[in-house]
Amino acid sequence: MMKFIMENRLQNKIGIIILAAGNSSRLGRPKQLLEYKESTLLKNTVSEALKVENSFVIVVTGSNHDLIEKKLHLSEITFSFNSDWENGMSSSIANGIKQLLLLNPKCEQCVLAVCDQPFVSSLIFENLIKEHHTAQKGIVASAYSETLGTPVLFHKKYFQDLLELKGQQGAKKLIRKYAEDVVSVLFEKGNIDIDTEEDYFKLIS
Q1: What is 54-78 written as a DSSP string?
Q2: Coiled-coil segments, which residues (predicted)?
Q3: In terms of pTM, does the model score above 0.90?
Q4: Strand positions, DSSP E, 74-171
């Protein structure tokens, strides 16, 4: 009964999956919890995702999951722990898609986002969704620095491809593979992400 109620509540909503499972090896501490905008890097991304109408948010955790989930304690989101996080980003994407389909088997689209793009905003997510409906393309990627990347929207016809990614493979593999079904939206400062202490210092200074 509870599952039916959940499915009914989420029907026609788009899933936003935030990948936050890595161990931030180059940084040496969890990037998800870096202080940013009187909040944290991860919570900022989550907050922007929650502003998007007709959406539900899944956060995929892995390394430091207990600490991250404790710090984020938001009832509006669903946490999904990826015990295979050390096997690369593909495992977190698959984990997120499985959780998405568990919550809402009839979900038509999802957006994949990462937790370390500090300038991501609800407008970026909304532009992806709007462009999907306008262009009728199956993949809508963010464009920055002469590349296409996250956040990126996928129609459900690509969910199986996302489940079958391996190792460090991410969304870019499918963006390249299905280039004829891809359209993009501009994400200014999308190239800025946080991998090192130097990156973080530049962000906050």
Answers
A1: TEEEEEEEBTBHHHHHHHH--TTEE
A2: none
A3: yes
A4: 77-81, 109-114, 139-144, 147-155
- Name the domain count of the chain: 1
Reading the block at residue 180, the tokens are 């004829």
The confidence score (pLDDT) of residue 142 equals: 98
Task: Mention every residue, 6+ apart, whose C-beta is less than 8 A from residue 191.
Answer: 144, 145, 147
List, for the chain, all residue ranges whose pLDDT scores fall below the cut of 50: none
Parent domain of 147: 2-204
DSSP strands (E only) in the chain: 14-20, 35-36, 39-40, 55-61, 77-81, 109-114, 139-144, 147-155, 182-186
> Which residues, in sequence order, are CB contacts of 122 under 8 Å at separation 6+?
48, 49, 51, 52
Task: Please report, for the domain that includes residue 80, its CATH number.
Answer: 3.90.550.10
What are 149's strand-pairing partners? 142
Q: Are 149 and 141 in contact (CB under 8 A)?
A: yes
Q: Measure the CA–CA gap between 39 and 141, rounded to whole angstroms.
A: 27
Buried b / exposed e over 66-92, threshold 16 CB at 10 Å, is: eebbeebeeeebbbbbbeebeebbbbb
Whether the link from the prior residue into 151 is cis, omega within 30° of 0, is: yes
Residues facing 142 on adjacent strands: 149, 185
Q: What is the DSSP letter of 13?
A: P
| pLDDT score recorded for residue 27 | 80
Q: Rounded distance, CA 96 to CA 76, Å?
A: 16
